[in-house]
Amino acid sequence: MTGGMEMRELGRTGLAVSRLGMGMAALGRPGYMVLGHAEDMADGTAVDAMRARAHAVLDAAWALGIRYVDAARSYGRAEAFVASWLSARGIAPGEMVIGSKWGYAYTAGWRVDAEVHEVKEHTPEQLARQSAESLALLGSHLRLYQIHSATLDTGVLENADVLAGLARLKRDGLRIGLSLTGARQADTLRRAMVVRVDGEGLFDAVQATWNVLEPSAGPALREARAAGMGVIVKEALANGRLTSRNTTAAHVDDLAVLRAEAERLDTTIDALALAAALAQPWADVVLSGAATVAHLRSNAAALEVKLDGEACDRLGTLAWNPDAYWDERSRLPWT
């Protein structure tokens, strides 16, 4: 236990992580595709203001016992904000496990209204460039390095030069993972599980979307955990769709179920949705994507939620068709 929070090993990586982790996607750049993000940024999006906000949320995360932070090269200045926080607080390498990702470049120029916020490129050149950038900022604090949003379509899992580059990073001491996206997350993961370089399995961990609206990757994640991979859950709140900020007609019935169960269990919608992810036996870490201290503390209440059979049964009725879920996600605005 750290700060009152349960710790566990991330698969067989040897990395000790907290059950709840801190995702930096909404904290490192002024625009993000999550409901209510503009409201969270209302007190300013200048770099200094965003750095101060990120540090405040990271302070709260540390106090809560969170010991895993997830960043990416495409999250604006997220890695730099994490690095400056680690330095300012005197946190030694290993005291907070830091994971980051390569494969997308941030292109928004610190604008919320940019036409394109990030560009995907899964090439060996991008890996070499971005891994050097990540290591320059985070140094020995960086413990897990992941392909950002790997899919079968990009061919990244068959690119021998990329795989060789990742294997070199692994020999240098990094654990190697991949994050997933889209309706075929399970197919991509199962392909990654059999990737070998010089006869050795390459991937140590996987980060995937799982929530009560989109649980389709669950069986594959269970297989991965049984095979020794660490499992990190992202988007457990479905980019804000599983919070009280969601007022769209398409989710009226979903939210009615969530509200009823949250009231019965004396908790909040967001805590209930996160508790559902934490309850999955294969999940090592579930990320909070909170952009404010208040929201992080509300998310952390999930650790105290005791799901019963009735709640599990009712939440189990909320799953969408994966294609419909990802289509809706693709249309969420950046704010």
Structurally, the number of domains stands at: 1
- The CATH architecture is Alpha-Beta Barrel
Radius of gyration: 19 Å
How many β-strands, per DSSP?
14
Shape: globular
Number of helical regions: 12
Give a short account of the largest sheet.
8 strands, parallel, barrel
Report on the architecture of this protein.
The protein has a single domain, classed as NADP-dependent oxidoreductase domain (TIM Barrel, Alpha-Beta Barrel), CATH 3.20.20. About 40% of the residues lie in helices and about 15% in strands. It has helices spanning about 35-40, 45-65, 80-90, 125-140, 160-170, 185-195, 220-225, 250-265, 270-280, 295-300, 310-315, 320-330, and strands at about 5-10, 15-20, 20-25, 70, 95-100, 105, 120, 140-150, 175-180, 195, 200, 205-210, 230-235, 285-290. The protein has an 8-stranded parallel beta barrel with strand order 3-4-5-8-9-12-13-14, surrounded by 6 helices. A two-stranded antiparallel sheet has the order 1-2. The longest helix is centred in the first third of the chain and has 18 residues, at about 45-65. The mean pLDDT is about 95.
